[in-house]
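Researcher: We're teaching a course module on how sequence relates to structure. For the next exercise, students receive a sequence and then see the predicted structure as tokens, so they can try to spot secondary structure elements on their own. Here is the exercise chain.
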Amino acid sequence: MERDILETKTKKGNGAVLALVADRARVSAGTVSRVFNNCGEIPPRTRIRVLASARELGFRPRVGIRGKQIALVTEPPQNTVMGGYVNTLTQYICFALSLRKASVSMITEDHINLLAESWFDGVIGIAWREDTIEVLKELHIPVVWFCDNQAKWFHTVYSDARKTGELVGSYLLAKGHRKIAVIHQTDYTGCNRLVGVRLAMVKAGLDPERLLLGLETTPELLHFSVKRLIDADCSAVWVPGEDMNAIKVSWLIQELAGKRIPEDISLIASENPEITAFQRPALTAVQAPLREMAEAAVRIIMEDRHEGLTSIEMPVRLIERNSVAVLPAAAPVRQ
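Model: And here is the predicted structure for the students to work with:
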């Protein structure tokens, strides 16, 4: 059970508590105090040793005598798409934390070791790598994650990927489409979006093994993926993920392959405000409530809860525009 590092005088005095940590870390009580206030003049090795000792003893600084210090773990800037999922969530999270007067330190996955050099009251994670997840599991502080695949370990705020896929699949089937492609990421979320479309087909009495084409989104494969869906004579393609890939696919279909959207191929994107609505044609899109997700994550991390995990599911919505054609319901499946 974790204990406040600054307890009331009826229990341990502040000096006695700091002395316990200092003795274990082989430093002075003053050094321990400066480490907990994230003072910059402490050598990194000493800082890491003090924080590790405090965590081993189960102590943490009491919230209320200082501002919350939150780490935002995210992907390296070279991997971030301007206006994409990570970039947008980061902006919303930082804004929400600033309203709560919390301090935020951004730590990218390629410098994940910096987590051990400062004391944080909590972590909000917008990251993917397995080694990052393992580091966060060892911190023993509240962590909020934006995917339900880590609900056993962290607080989670997420949109259900399978439900989203089923929503899109059902929508396309209702528009008369039968041969559908999904250009998806190969991670947990991307694969479950594909599963959702498959479920919609099964519920409609269709055979996804013949009618559903799952393709990867890596930049090197986008051209090949578009060629494959055209060769397979798919009438519609969904490109999930707030990463601009849908706009690239739109360009590849129209400018490179010479096909028309939606007359030849229908396209569903992920909503990117101020961008998807101004494409030609305006793109039908799935919108995840990123602002609300960021605000929910900040509410959780500011509660200072160390027992019991919170899981909040946020529904998506489909914004209908001009990029999906209506096909005759009884149209035969093209082979």
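Model: If you want an answer key for the exercise: Residues 1-13 have pLDDT under 50 and may be disordered. The first helix runs from residue 14 to 25.
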